[in-house]
Write a structure and sequence with these properties.
Elements (H helix, E strand, L loop, with lengths): L10 H5 L2 H4 L23 H4 L2 H5 L9 H4 L1 H8 L6 H12 L16 H6 L4 H10 L4 H14 L16 H14 L5 H17 L11 E8 L6 E5 L4 E5 L3 E5 L2 H4 L5 E8 L3 E4 L12 E5 L2 E8 L1
Length: 302
């Protein structure tokens, strides 16, 4: 494998292009209440969450990940493609002491709940999301997106519009309970995202010819359940997605989850995880976890 394939782009170079992504009309902009003023990556939320970004994506770089985990990327450089997943999983197991939680500060005698929480790693969180995206695991993942990309969740069990309201407080409680007593879960997610981006850059899943987007599908029953910013001809809608969403690469599988199919060209940079990234973590539905923002979609019947 050529080392340049694993090189993380320079954040300064990507930020120079951010002014290009800010152009567009109000319908393409990320609403003010759907973004935070600060985040932990190289582009502000108002840019990465915009419709312009969907059309003209550039790399999203999480602060400090490449620098703090250079050893991981060096190892991946020297690894054949078929073994990348095993090397990545081994690195996370050792770095975060996933099989030896006592080395991360867990002490005996604190009760079963503390011991069980020590087992709450990135794999269990992603599996928990696949069963119920409004679960405690879902709250943790949505909280990570909020922290890293500056995109607050728009829905968790119910609509989240008032940051001082009961629904948002419930989400924060679930998020904090999900993080309590775990081994740096959000730092684990940082590496999952970085690894996913490296795999996509290497052409997995296959893209022939190489592309910047994947066409993904989502089954829906009612567009009224989504924040529609504008409507166009031919079933085209501009909508505001939740900050993390499940899509499928299979139109047929997506159709099992709703009477209508929502089709979107998703930037590779917005894909946090997919079912083929680490075999055995997710099964079925050909599921993709997609970071949200404003997107143009086409709605059609089955």
């Amino acid at each position: 494998m050529k080392s340049e394939n694993m090189t993380v782009p320079d954040a300064a170079q990507t930020c120079d292009k951010s002014h290009v992504l800010c152009r567009g009309d109000d319908k393409a902009s990320l609403p003010r209440d759907a973004r935070l003023p600060i985040n932990r990556c190289n582009l502000p939320a108002v840019v990465l969450g915009s419709l312009s970004y969907q059309k003209y994506p550039i790399p999203l770089l999480l602060d400090g990940v490449a620098e703090l985990h250079r050893d991981l990327f060096d190892r991946l450089n020297a690894t054949p493609p078929e073994a990348l997943g095993a090397v990545f999983a081994d690195y996370l197991t050792v770095h975060f002491r996933l099989e030896r939680p006592e080395e991360m500060g867990l002490r005996a005698g604190f009760g079963g709940d503390r011991k069980n929480r020590a087992k709450a790693n990135y794999i269990r969180m992603i599996r928990g999301w696949s069963f119920d995206s409004d679960s405690r695991e879902g709250a943790v993942l949505k909280g990570w997106v909020e922290s890293r990309f500056g995109l607050p969740p728009r829905y968790h069990g119910q609509a989240l519009r008032d940051f001082s309201g009961e629904a948002y407080r419930r989400y924060l409680e679930m998020r904090s309970h999900g993080l309590y007593g775990t081994g740096a879960l959000e730092a684990q997610f940082d590496l999952v995202y970085a690894f996913c981006q490296l795999q996509l850059a290497l052409g997995y899943p296959p893209q022939n010819p190489p592309q910047t987007h994947l066409t993904l599908y989502r089954g829906v029953n009612r567009m009224s359940d989504h924040e529609v910013l504008s409507k166009g001809e031919g079933g085209r809608h501009i909508i505001l997605l939740n900050n993390l969403n499940s899509f499928s690469r299979s139109r047929e599988r997506a159709g099992e989850f709703g009477d209508y199919i929502m089709t979107a060209d998703i930037p590779l940079t917005k894909i946090f995880f997919h079912c083929g990234l680490l075999p055995g973590v997710l099964k079925g539905e050909d599921e993709y976890l997609v970071i949200g923002g404003v997107v143009e979609v086409t709605l059609s019947t089955l």
